[in-house]
Amino acid sequence: MAEVVGDGSLDHKGNPAIRSATGGWKRAVLVFGPELCERMTTLGVATNLVTYLTNDLHLSNTKAPNIVTNFLGTSFMLCLLGGFIADTYIGRFWTVAIAATIQFLGMLVLTILTSLPSLRPPHCVHDCPPAKAKQLSLLYLALYLSALGTGGIKSNVSAFGADQFDKNEPKEQKLMSYFFNWFFVSISVGALFSLTVLVYIQDNVGRGWGYGICAAAMLLAIVIFLAGTRMYRYKAPSGSPLTRIAKVVVAAVRKHKLELPRDQSSLYGSLGPGKDAEDPASDQSARHTNQFRHLYQYRFLDKAAVLEPSDDEIYDENPKPWRLCTVTQIEEVKMVLRLLPIWATTITFYTVYAQMLTFSVVQGSKMDRKMGSFLFPSASSAAFLFATIMVTVTVYDRFIVPLMRKLTGHPQGITTLQRIGVGLVVAILAMVVAAMVERRRVRIARENKLLDSPDVPVPMSVLWILPQYVLVGIGEAFTYIGQLEFFYRESPDGMQSLGVGLFLSTISLGFFLSSFLVSVVDSVTRGGGSGGWIANNLNRSRLDDFYWLLAVVSSANLVLYLICARWYKYRRAVSHSTGTSAHF
């Protein structure tokens, strides 16, 4: 008799999935396609978009980077919507398929937009009029269709890939950790292609050709992804995670005047100390925890499971969902709340990351990019970021993990929170290096009397900016993968897409924070005849001071992160704990 997968997975017909016929590496590999092409498309647009906005659409050095970071921020913020739709209505598979189609349409519009000269301002050199509202509106349509597609793909494709492995089977559970690593490597392959081949085509053949390749690649990825329909493992939508959270909050508010019982076993759905609470509506069970016992607002949630005399009649039946909740439902909400401090203290990493796609690209365009007869595209500098990621992940997987397993005894070598922390430290170093390089570039411009000649490359090799890309690449290899695994594993069952969406929203907020800081710094520093820290003439700007500001902000954030990470207890530890120790 064929063995059924033990985690409740279904096949494409809605029947229990057969282990030998569904899931595993052979099917998970098919999932790489949409995300690889999504990353290739998004970065193929975003990395070189700032030069298109300044050179072709004649926008300023403050408006252009903010358009890029707002586009990227919206892309990742929409991941919350993608996760919600998948968990509540149509599942991860169909959300990915539909979102990939939407992104394909966005790239089709962008291809047409950049191919027709009538849809952009005429070429000029000095005092150029910026793009008209109609031209910008078409650009925004293309960008935000692409952003909507990104939101649906990114919040679900990694979780859908992880669904191909049974968490209750030790061999497949071990493969899941490798999946997250190599999933990220596949993303980096797409990014590397976009930052080398696509950027070169955009600069030397035509942007329309570059974006057309992205559209064709996404169409191919959709076909490959759909080809695995009969072989995938599926998880049925478990209902709106936001509604599940809201039920607990509403029930607790309704019972806010009640006292919590001393005997926790009297809470609804509890079977007593040390035993699992049962919730037939949930695909998991959880024990009551006391990690928040010193915080009233969290103990307050337990009131949702306090039985009133009027509840006696429904104690052995299904309770009214907005009036009485089980311990398991309450613990799910606590799991989500425990994620929020980690979520908040990882945002600044992506503010640093945003500089690699905006100001560092502009910075490189003002330097000597000649390498023999070849003119190095400034946007291709980011290729070193993703090449570094691939090398770092390989070295980490092959050498660091086995070594750290021997030293720490931890199956992953180091914990996910420790991995994230390493990335945050490296991001600070990247900003310090970026500030020092920019200070040197401006000094050389001054020595060569080029302060008022921003279009003349400074006689300083563009290779000087590569260390900051390498450092951010190392940081992302630690932070991104650590966050992805952390939020997927630590989210309640049935809320993994929302958990991944929550993680991806840190990227979004990091980009939005970058836009906010640019606007504030420009407003505060501009005046008295000065162009401010971020002037249109980069040679007369103080971009190095902006980088130093980010280093300081990131350092303060690191301190907060370490406090939160030390406080956090992992999900397995929480379910067996009385809330006494952290496991950073």
Q: In the CATH hierarchy, what is the architecture of the largest domain at level 2?
A: Up-down Bundle
* Rg, Å, rounded: 26 Å
Which structural category fits the helices and strands?
mainly alpha
One letter per element, helices H and strands E, the order comes to HHHHHHHHHHHEEEHHEHHHH
> How are the strands ordered across the major sheet?
1-4
What level of helicity do the residues show? 55-70%
Task: Give the biggest sheet.
Answer: 2 strands, parallel
What's the arrangement of secondary structure elements?
Elements: H1 25-56, H2 63-115, H3 133-154, H4 157-162, H5 170-204, H6 207-227, H7 241-254, H8 296-299, H9 327-344, H10 347-357, H11 359-365, E1 367-368, E2 370-371, E3 374-375, H12 382-408, H13 416-447, E4 458-461, H14 466-490, H15 496-525, H16 543-567, H17 571-575
Parallel strand pairs: 1-4
Antiparallel strand pairs: 2-3
What are the key terms here?
584 residues; disordered C terminus; POT_fam; transmembrane transporter activity; mainly alpha; single chain; Growth Hormone, Chain: A; 3 domains; two-stranded antiparallel sheet; globular; 4 strands; two-stranded parallel sheet
